[in-house]
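thought: user wants a sequence for this fold. calling inverse folding tool.
action: design(structure=
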C-alpha cells in the first residue's frame, strides 16, 4: 500500500512537471483566434484527472460525491446531483415534476433549445412570452396573462448570465402554486439581491460544457432543496429504478428482498424495480475530478468575466446611437456569459456587416442561440401557445450578436477586440 501511494505521488508530480513544461501559445493580433469561450485550466485539473483514472472506478465515485457536496454548499442548497450534460439536467428537472400530458409550462422562445426540448419530450405544452430588450429576459409583466388552469410551471434561463426578475417570478409562482425551474447553465456565479441564481427555483440546472463558467468537458448538475424532487431526479437519471443505492452498493434500505412493489412477486430484487421510465444519464468520476479543480477557480473566473464585460461596456458606451447595450436587471450582479450587442434599426450598418468584419479578423461571435425557436425547422409544427407577440424576440434574432468575456480573454486579446471594433465603427461614421 505504501509503495502504491508513493507511485501515485510520483505520477502526479510528473503530470505537474509535464504541464509546466508546455509553452504558452503567443497571441498574434489578427492571426490568433479570439474565441468567445473556452476551457481555462492548469496542472490541478490534469492531476485530478489522472488521479481519478488511477482509481479506475470510471463511474461516479469519490470525486463526484465531493463535487456534489461542494457545489450544493456553494449555491446554498441541500442537494446536487451530477449528470452527463446541462441538456440532460434540464430533461431531468422537467421529468422530475411528473406533470401530466397537456399541462402547460411558461417559457420564452428566445434561447437555447434545451430549455424547450424537455417540455416537448414530456408531452407538455410550452407557452411562450416575449423578452425585454437590454436584459433579454422574460417579460415578467406578461406572465400572469399567460396563466391558464393547465399552467403548472415556469421554466426560464437567466440570459447570458443576467438574472431574471426573480422577485416578480417567485410572487407569481406562490400566488398560482406553480413550480419554478431555473436554467442556470449560463449564469453560474450570478447573484440576485445577494443570493446566487440557481438557489431560487424548486429545481435549478447547470452545465459544465467547455463554453460555460466551469467545465468538466461534458457534464451538468441538477440542484434542489426538496427531498422528493431529489429522489425523482435520481430515479430518472439512474434508469428509472426505485432503488437509490450508490453505484457498487447494495441493500442500503435493508429491504432489498422483502418488499411487494407493483405487480412484481414479493421479494423481487429492489435494485431491479423501476418506478419511472428513466435513462442512464450519470457522469464519470474523471469528469467530476476536473470539475472539482475548476470549482476552486470559480471566484476568480467570475471576477475576470465581470472585468472583461466592464471594459467592453466602457468602450461601447459612446456608441449608443448604434447599439442597445446590455442592461443588468435591478438588484442583480451578473456573472456574464457573454456581452450582447443589439444593432439599432437606424444604425448605418447591419449585424451581418459587423459580424463578418469581426469574424474575418479572427474574433468569434455568436447569435442569441436559437433566435426565435418557433422559426427553427425543428419546432415549426409543435403544439404551443404564444401570449401576446414575440416582437422583441424577433428583433434580437435579426439584430443581436454577442462577444465573449470568458477568463481566457487576456488584456492583450481584449485590446485587440476593442481596437478592431473601433476601426469598423470609424469606417461607418
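)
observation: tool returned 429 residues.
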Amino acid at each position: 500500500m505504501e509503495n502504491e501511494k508513493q507511485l501515485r505521488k510520483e505520477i502526479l508530480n510528473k503530470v505537474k512537471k509535464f504541464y509546466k513544461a508546455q509553452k504558452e501559445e503567443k497571441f498574434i493580433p489578427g492571426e490568433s483566434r479570439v474565441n468567445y469561450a473556452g476551457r481555462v485550466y492548469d496542472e490541478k485539473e490534469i492531476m485530478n484527472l489522472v488521479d481519478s483514472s488511477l482509481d479506475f472506478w470510471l463511474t461516479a465515485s469519490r470525486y463526484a460525491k465531493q463535487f456534489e457536496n461542494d457545489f450544493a454548499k456553494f449555491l446554498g442548497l441541500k442537494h446536487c446531483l451530477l449528470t452527463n450534460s446541462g441538456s440532460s439536467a434540464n430533461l431531468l428537472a422537467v421529468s422530475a415534476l411528473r406533470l401530466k400530458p397537456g399541462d402547460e409550462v411558461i417559457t420564452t422562445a428566445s434561447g437555447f433549445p434545451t430549455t424547450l426540448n424537455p417540455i416537448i419530450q414530456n408531452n407538455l405544452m410550452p407557452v411562450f412570452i416575449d423578452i425585454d430588450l437590454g436584459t433579454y429576459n422574460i417579460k415578467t409583466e406578461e406572465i400572469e396573462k399567460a396563466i391558464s388552469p393547465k399552467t403548472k410551471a415556469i421554466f426560464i434561463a437567466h440570459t447570458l448570465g443576467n438574472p431574471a426578475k426573480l422577485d416578480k417570478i417567485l410572487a407569481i409562482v406562490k400566488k398560482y402554486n406553480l413550480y419554478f425551474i431555473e436554467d442556470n447553465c449560463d449564469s453560474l456565479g450570478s447573484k440576485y439581491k445577494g443570493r446566487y441564481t440557481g438557489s431560487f427555483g424548486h429545481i435549478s440546472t447547470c452545465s459544465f460544457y467547455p463554453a460555460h463558467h466551469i467545465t468538466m468537458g461534458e457534464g451538468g448538475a441538477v440542484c434542489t432543496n426538496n427531498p422528493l424532487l431529489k429522489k425523482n431526479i435520481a430515479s430518472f437519471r439512474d434508469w428509472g429504478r426505485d432503488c437509490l443505492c450508490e453505484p457498487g452498493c447494495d441493500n442500503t434500505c435493508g429491504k432489498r428482498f422483502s418488499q411487494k412493489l407493483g405487480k412484481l412477486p414479493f421479494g423481487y430484487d429492489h435494485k431491479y424495480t423501476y418506478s419511472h421510465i428513466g435513462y442512464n444519464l450519470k457522469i464519470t468520476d474523471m469528469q467530476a475530478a476536473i470539475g472539482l479543480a475548476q470549482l476552486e477557480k470559480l471566484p476568480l473566473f467570475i471576477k475576470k468575466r465581470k472585468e472583461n464585460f466592464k471594459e467592453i461596456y466602457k468602450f461601447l458606451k459612446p456608441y449608443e446611437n448604434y447599439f442597445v447595450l446590455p442592461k443588468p436587471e435591478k438588484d442583480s450582479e451578473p456573472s456574464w456569459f457573454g456581452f450582447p450587442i443589439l444593432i439599432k434599426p437606424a444604425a448605418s450598418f447591419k449585424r451581418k456587416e459587423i459580424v463578418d468584419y469581426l469574424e474575418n479578423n479572427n474574433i468569434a461571435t455568436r447569435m442569441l442561440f436559437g433566435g426565435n425557436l418557433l422559426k427553427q425547422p425543428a419546432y415549426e409544427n409543435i403544439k404551443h401557445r404564444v401570449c401576446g407577440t414575440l416582437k422583441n424576440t424577433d428583433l434580437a434574432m435579426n439584430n443581436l450578436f454577442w462577444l465573449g468575456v470568458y477568463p481566457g480573454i487576456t488584456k492583450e486579446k481584449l485590446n485587440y477586440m476593442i481596437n478592431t471594433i473601433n476601426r469598423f465603427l470609424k469606417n461607418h461614421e
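thought: summarizing for user.
answer: Here is the designed sequence. The chain has a mean pLDDT of 96.
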